[in-house]
């Protein structure tokens, strides 16, 4: 049972020393009761009190980590229902499913497709992290061989999917490397929970729990925890998107608002619509509504981009704009002394948009990014984070004059008004470029610094 702030206060040193960063022990106790701080922040709490306060200081949604090799996927540890209240912390792992009944050619084709599901967007590599390995044959040896074949050619984190504990155990025994990793095994149900819990506890790997509704799911998690398996991921069982979304929302709400421990775990969901477009829409729904692992049936390359871009947008901290380093970037190859110099802000989306257009022009160029605290060009200019003085300092702090024979900089057309002052402040000649990045390729092909041919 969760403790009240006064219960917690009675167990604290009550010295009001301020070492935890709070003015009084009571203030710290109130924050601890609301799951806003960690007990570790109090350096003087006794071991006896730590044991008694373990329940109160535990996060409302436990962190569970699945991993393989260098791939590590932390799940859970979320603290809010809505992103604007703070931020969402651990983004969901997304992947597709493969069956052990696929022919050799089908499996090879799907693995090739699966390994190719990787994109670059605003400086981040976005891709699928997990792969569901579905046992449909009923043959333990066939499934174990199938798992081994996938592990040889695909580096994603495996989800071993079978409700037969013997088949799961055989797959682990025949693929010893998995015992050194942390794959997810799926799934413990009312019928097999004790055997599955034993496998998970013995191998110290996470276990997915599948129940027919939230009440059964809560009963199963308590039973499985008592059996020694503590790293759990919840599947509420519904396969239609409306009920699935409602269950995902209710699990998050019960964990965060009611501190209901049996549902205080990350969740997973399956997207399998009547066609590939419905499957994609279901997956996107679960990205927005709290699933920790999302598995698409027969994932396609064209599905990967929208669902992973949505995830990247949702799991970007709204309090911290994405930025790039404020420095000189070289775009293209074989820069000579007449290479153009462009200026923009260090807002990541602005920089990568500009860089993409410059690259498509095939004109080797330099881009100077000004530190505007992650604001776009017009926003930075309006808030005076992009002024002639700031831009001049950014230009003159570079070593560009050692690389080029001119002092001419191209600025965004939206801030043409500061061109004269920038020339005075920096000593550089200023050329006003296009207002939109899409105009850069044509502009750069016709451009030469100081009118040089």
From TrEMBL:
Instruction: Domain (4Fe-4S): give its ranges.
Output: 1-59
Q: Which SUPFAM superfamilies match?
A: Dihydropteroate synthetase-like
Q: Name one GO molecular function term.
A: methyltransferase activity
Give yes or no: UniProt keyword Transmembrane helix: no
Please give the PROSITE patterns that the UniProt record associates with this protein: 4FE4S
The cross-references to PANTHER family, in alphabetical order and at most eight, read: ACETYL-COA DECARBONYLASE_SYNTHASE COMPLEX SUBUNIT GAMMA (PTHR36214:SF3), PTHR36214
Its protein name is CO-methylating acetyl-CoA synthase corrinoid iron-sulfur protein large subunit
Report the source organism.
Halarsenatibacter silvermanii
């Amino acid at each position: 049972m969760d403790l009240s702030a006064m219960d917690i206060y009675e167990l604290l040193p009550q010295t009001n020393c301020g070492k935890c960063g709070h003015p009084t022990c009571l203030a710290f106790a109130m924050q601890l009761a609301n799951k806003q701080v960690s007990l570790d922040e109090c350096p003087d709490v006794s071991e006896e009190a730590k044991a008694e306060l373990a329940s109160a200081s535990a996060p409302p949604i436990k962190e569970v980590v699945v991993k393989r090799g260098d791939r590590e996927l932390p799940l859970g540890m979320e603290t809010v229902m809505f992103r604007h209240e703070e931020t969402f912390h651990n983004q969901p792992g997304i992947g597709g499913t493969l069956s052990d009944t696929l022919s050799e050619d089908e499996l090879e084709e799907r693995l090739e497709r699966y390994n190719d599901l990787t994109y670059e967007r605003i400086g981040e590599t976005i891709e699928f992290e997990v792969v569901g390995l579905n046992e449909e044959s009923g043959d333990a040896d066939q499934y174990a061989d199938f798992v081994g074949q996938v592990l040889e050619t695909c580096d994603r984190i495996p989800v071993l999917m079978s409700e037969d504990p013997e088949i799961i155990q055989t797959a682990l025994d025949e693929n010893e490397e998995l015992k050194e990793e942390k794959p997810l095994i799926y799934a413990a149900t009312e019928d097999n929970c004790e055997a599955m819990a034993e496998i998970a506890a013995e191998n110290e790997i996470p276990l997915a729990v599948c129940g027919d509704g939230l009440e059964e799911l809560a009963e199963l998690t308590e039973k499985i925890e008592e059996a020694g398996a503590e790293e759990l991921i919840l599947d509420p069982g519904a396969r239609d998107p409306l009920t699935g979304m409602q269950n995902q929302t209710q699990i998050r709400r019960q964990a965060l608002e009611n501190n209901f421990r049996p549902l205080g775990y990350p969740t997973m969901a399956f997207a399998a619509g009547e066609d590939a477009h419905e499957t994609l829409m279901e997956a996107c729904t679960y990205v927005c509504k709290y699933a920790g692992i999302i598995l698409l049936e027969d994932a396609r390359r064209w599905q990967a981009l929208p669902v992973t871009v949505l995830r990247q947008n949702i799991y970007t901290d709204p309090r911290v704009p994405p930025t790039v380093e404020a420095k000189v970037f070289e775009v293209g190859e074989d820069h000579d002394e007449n290479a153009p110099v462009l200026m923009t802000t260090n807002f990541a989306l602005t920089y990568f948009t500009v860089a993409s257009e410059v690259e498509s022009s095939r004109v080797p160029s330099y881009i100077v990014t000004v530190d505007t605290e992650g604001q776009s060009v017009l926003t930075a200019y309006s808030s005076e984070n992009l002024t002639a003085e700031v831009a001049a300092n950014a230009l003159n702090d570079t070593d560009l004059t050692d690389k080029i024979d001119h002092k001419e900089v191209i600025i965004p057309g939206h801030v043409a008004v500061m061109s004269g002052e920038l020339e005075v402040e920096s000593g550089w000649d200023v050329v006003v470029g296009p207002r939109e990045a899409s105009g850069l390729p044509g502009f750069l092909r016709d451009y030469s610094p100081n009118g040089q041919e």
